[in-house]
Amino acid sequence: MSHDDCIFCKITKGEIPSAKVYEDEKVYAFLDLSQVTKGHTLVIPKEHAKNIYEISSESAGELFSRVPKIANAIKETYGAIGMNVLNNNEAPADQSVFHIHLHLIPRYGKGDGYSSNWTTHGDNYSQEDLQKIAGEISSSIK
Q: Cα–Cα–Cα angle for 56, 59, 64, nearest 5°?
């Protein structure tokens, strides 16, 4: 997909309307249309990057540095008692718009409409297994 076809790039340029929460020269935040919980906000870099694998360190720093102030504004405005910060990368991880974005999903207690139930497999790994996995990942960091 070219950047010209990217729905989030069009939103940052004002070509598609959005419910803007925050904007500066590098970052744009707007309400997610799904509103999983009240105040569910997407935070995106204005610079197009497909996902966490393609975003530059500089753009990632700009993106992530804005999250606390936006999250705190949501918390203060609606009295959220928690916040899920979620990022999906590639279709198998449920990424549906291929412009990196962070979901800020405020939490209001059980039954607020969001569930992050996943299966844990900690019992399947010994400390030695974990050390081996950590070493393998570390050796790939460039």
A: 120
Q: Say if residues 37 and 114 touch (Cβ distance below 8 Å).
A: yes
Look up 40 and say whether it is catalytic: no
3-state secondary structure at position 54: coil
Q: What is the DSSP string of 79-119?
A: T-SEEEEE---SGGGT--SSS--EEEEEE-STTSS------
What is this structure's pTM?
0.92
C-beta atoms surrounding 36 within 10 Å = 17
Mind listing the pLDDT tens digit of every residue in the chain (142 residues)?
567 799 999 999 999 999 999 999 999 999 999 999 999 999 999 999 999 999 999 999 999 999 999 999 999 999 999 999 999 999 999 999 999 999 999 999 988 988 878 788 888 999 999 999 999 999 999 8
Show the domains of the chain with their CATH numbers: 3-115 (3.30.428.10)
Under DSSP, the state recorded for 14 is T
State the burial class of residue 31 (Cβ atoms within 10 Å of its Cβ: 0-12, 13-18, 19+).
middle
Selecting among 40, 48, 101, 103, the annotated active-site residue is 101
